[in-house]
Amino acid sequence: MLRALRRRWDAYKYRFVPWLALNLRRKRRTLRYVPESSQDKIISDEDVFETLLKEYEGNCRGAGWGRDPVERAGTVYRKHEPIFFQSLGNPFIFRCIDGVLIDGNDKGLSRSVYRSCSRRDQLGPFQMNDESWLTAALQNPLAVGQYVNNCSHEKAANVCYQEFDVPGYFPVELKQYLPNIVYSHDIESHLRCVVLVALRDIKQGEELFSNYYTVVS
Fold it and tell me: What is the pLDDT of residues 167-196, one digit of tens each?
C-alpha cells in the first residue's frame, strides 16, 4: 500500500506547486534557467521546421529516419480545456511556458482521447497526425520524447525541451508523422509541438536526460 502511494507521489510531485517551491533551491543543479520565455530556444523555429521537414520527407522517399530531433507525443490542451480525469496518476503531462498542456500517456483515458481526436480530424485519405506512438509499431520513431527521464546530480541533462508551433503551411501529406493532436479544434491556432534539442554531442546508445524544470526569471 505504502509502496503504491509512493509511486503515485513520485509521479505527481512535479506538478504540485508547494513541493516545487520548497525544492527549487535544493535541486538547483537539475534546473534550467532562462531570462525570459522568448529566449527559451536553443535553435530557431525555422531550424526546427526544416529539420522535421527533412526527416518526414526522407521517410516518405524511403530514406529512413535520422536521429534528431526527438519529439514529445500527446494530446494538446489549452488552459481552459478539461484534463482533470486524464491527469490522475499520470506522470506524462508536460506544461508549456504559456500553460498549454501536452498529455503523452499512451494508456487508459489519455489513449482513448488521443485516438478519438485523431479520427475526428482525418481529412479524407489524409491522416492529420500519427497514432502509431500508441503502439509498438512506430511509424515515427522520433516520437519518444515523453519517455525521457529527468536529469540528476549524477546524470546531467544532454537534451532540453523546446516548444514549437507548427505553421499553417506545413505540408498536408506530411502531417501523418506529427505525434500531436489538439483536444478541441473549434479555436483557430497552430498545433503546439515539443521537441528535444541536444545540448551537446550525444553518442550512439547514450541515454537521454532532460530538465523537468525550466525557471523563467
Answer: 999 999 999 999 999 999 876 788 999 999
CA distances in angstroms from 162 to 32, 139, 159, 165, listed in the order given: 12, 22, 10, 10
Spatial distance between the Cα atoms of 72 and 122, rounded to a whole number of angstroms: 21
pTM given for the model:
0.85
* Contact between residue 81 and residue 93 where contact means Cβ atoms under 8 Å apart: no
Q: Please give the helix or strand (H or E) that residue 9 lies within, else none.
A: helix 2-12
Grid cell of 73 as nine digits? 507525443
The three-class DSSP label of residue 55 is helix
**Which DSSP string do the residues of 94-109 spell out, in sequence order?**
EE-TTS-EEE---SHH
Cβ atoms of 75 and 92 within 8 Å: the answer is no
